[in-house]
Design a protein that fits this description.
Layout lengths: L13 H8 L9 H27 L1 E10 L7 H15 L7 E9 L1 E11 L6 H7 L3 E7 L3 H8 L15 E4 L3 H10 L3 H6 L6 E4 L3 E4 L5 E2 L3 E4 L2 E4 L9
Antiparallel strand pairs: 1-3, 1-4, 2-3, 2-5, 6-7, 7-8, 9-10
Helix pairs in contact: 2-5, 2-6
């Protein structure tokens, strides 16, 4: 099977770009750093799509923090229950919750959220107290969404989380947003190879599979003890 080097593979420039281009071996970068890098990139992409939807539906953003009093109360279903309550409250308005969230520990275990709500709809203290009976709540209108997202995706406070707990998540995106977020998470070399409307899926230990054509795209980069290097010319490209 013939393989060729693609002429538009982006060059390596700086450690940030390097992280986008290469999936390094587990011992070469901490799991925490990788998780935070993914968190920041994905939250930024989702927020961009939420902004687009907000302009169409007339939504505004609020910053929310949900804090646990006792670690023993933690359960992943707690946050799902919170959103179920919010979803029921929003139902008469014809809207559904659109949100991102991050789990942190800074003394107490807590969630930071950015939630988009229809104008005229307010989160009140009594509702929040009933929806989150495991501790305290805080909310404020989010006038600078990008600043709040940058804050909640900070590196500090992301350690010592409950075993198996998800560190971040999102909800309330449409199909257009799902595709845009997926494309935003592609490594730079893959973006250079794919047409704009391509739909691909990552296949572990194989590469990225184009669902329309069946082509598999392999990374042209490999991580070595001496740094990032291009694979041998005959072993790169598409197959």
């Amino acid at each position: 099977m013939e393989r060729t080097m693609h002429p538009h593979i982006p060059p390596l420039r700086g450690t940030h770009s390097l992280g986008e281009l290469v999936n390094k071996i587990e011992t070469s970068a901490s799991t925490l750093n990788k998780r935070i890098r993914i968190c920041r990139k994905k939250l930024k992409a989702v927020t961009k799509e939420h902004r687009r939807i907000a302009k169409t539906e007339g939504l505004y953003a609020v910053a929310v923090t949900l804090t646990y009093v006792k670690d023993a109360d933690f359960c992943a279903r707690n946050l799902s229950q919170f959103f179920n309550c919010l979803r029921s409250k929003l139902k008469p308005t014809g809207h559904k919750p659109r949100y991102v969230w991050v789990l942190e520990r800074s003394g107490a275990l807590h969630y930071h959220l950015a939630i988009w709500l229809p104008r005229g709809f307010m989160l009140n203290h009594s509702d929040l107290t009933r929806w989150w009976p495991w501790g305290s709540t805080w909310t404020q209108r989010c006038r600078k969404v990008s600043g709040w997202i940058h804050y909640i995706s900070k590196r500090s406070s992301k350690t010592d989380l409950p075993k198996g707990a998800r560190a971040f998540g999102h909800g309330g995106v449409d199909e257009q947003a799902k595709q845009a977020v997926q494309q935003a998470m592609f490594p730079r070399w893959l973006k250079a190879l794919l047409p704009p409307d391509a739909k691909v899926k990552r296949v572990p230990k194989v590469g990225w599979l184009d669902l329309s054509t069946g082509e598999v795209y392999e990374s042209p980069w490999i991580w070595t003890p001496r740094g990032c290097r291009l694979k041998a010319k005959e072993a790169t490209g598409r197959r």
